[in-house]
Amino acid sequence: MSRERKLFRQDQSPGPEGSSESSSSSSQDSSSTSSKLGPRGHRMKSQAYFPFSLLPVDCQLHVFSFLSEVEKCTAAMVCSDWSKLMRTPRLWRVADFMRLGAVLSGMDGVLVSVREFERWKEWVHQYAYHLTSRGASLLVLRASFDLGDQRTKWADFLLQFLDSVHCGDLQELELNWTLTHLEPLDIYPPGSMAQICLAKTDQFNSFQTLFERLTRSSPKLSRMKLPFDWSEHSVSLLTHFQNLSTLELNYFWVFKSVRPETMQQLTKSLPKLKTLILQVLVPVKDLGVSYPMESKSLEFLDVSQSRGLVFSHLDLPSLKEFKIKKTIRGIILNRRTRVALQTRWSCLYDLLKVGTPKLQVFNSHTLLPNWQTQTYLELSEVLLQSCYCIQHTDTWLL
């Protein structure tokens, strides 16, 4: 009897194979159940589904705004709905005619062939058509065209392009109107001085025409980088951009002088200007001229790329960082003439003490708290590299 009960218990207990089969079947049941049940026991679809088309149009456009231009063109081929969305003007915010990388030669020019330049010109016109056909609403415009080029008519091209897109929200402008991007250096051989002067006149006349158009179409410009001719008319036009916070002005021509009153008028007339970068080349004929500068809002001033720029007065109560570099141009003067000239120049240290009470960084040197009352070795070394006064410049060369 006890032997029968023992055998009965052995028959009821699962063997090794029965155990694995039972566990595998139970795991399959549980996995199938878990795939059908959500975290709270709700049944879910076996495949994930994201209803992108059900999002509001503004949300869809916001997602597409993170794509590059090439990616937007690719997305437009997905379906008719996306193709329509890709024609929304506010998806096309940047017009960059300076892209397409080039091999720099280490000098001012770019090493490209005439054939490559012709291909680039063809791309420029196709790119402009691409943006205008979509009614682009620009935030950024970057271009480098010689507006005085009477053969290619870049001035007319750029004016026509601006008329074909929306520029009311334009905030950033980088425009080199003296040089055509990727143009071979020898495509137009240099002429006589008279021809060069005529070409420069054509350039800044076309620039002023374009600038007048921008004052009417793009009042929200806040960042600007361009060569500047410093004429009274150009300065008057520039003061129309009352939202400018960052301004970089490069020299237009080595023989073009800058009147001190003109520079003072410009900086005083821009109430929101925070950053100013100036590249001014003072001609030798203006040696001895010094410049006043006034701005209640300016916080960063960089004139380190200028040549012969000497200040006579500074009224910059908000300035925090200042960069300036003294450039010796190799002008040999006798001692009497040099001393008479330098005695008319104010010491930069005296101007900074009075006109920049919040200055913290001078030529990348962090000033000590008592810099206004007492000079020290590091500050004196910086002044020797930046000040033209007789105390900091003891040389026969200027």
Q: How would you describe the overall organization of this protein?
A:
- The chain is an alpha/beta fold.
- It folds into three domains: about 55-90, Monooxygenase, CATH 1.20.1280; about 90-220; about 245-398, no CATH class.
- It contains 13 helices and twelve strands.
- It has a ten-stranded mixed β-sheet with strand order 1-2-3-4-5-6-8-10-11-12, covered by helices on one side. Strands 7-9 form a two-stranded parallel sheet.
- Strand 2 (about 140-145), helix 7 and strand 3 (about 170-175) form a beta-alpha-beta unit.
- The chain is globular and about 80 Å long.
- It starts with a helix and ends in a 14-residue tail after the last helix.
- The model is unreliable at about 1-45 and about 100-110 (pLDDT under 50).
- This is F-box domain-containing protein.
- Pfam families: F-box-like.
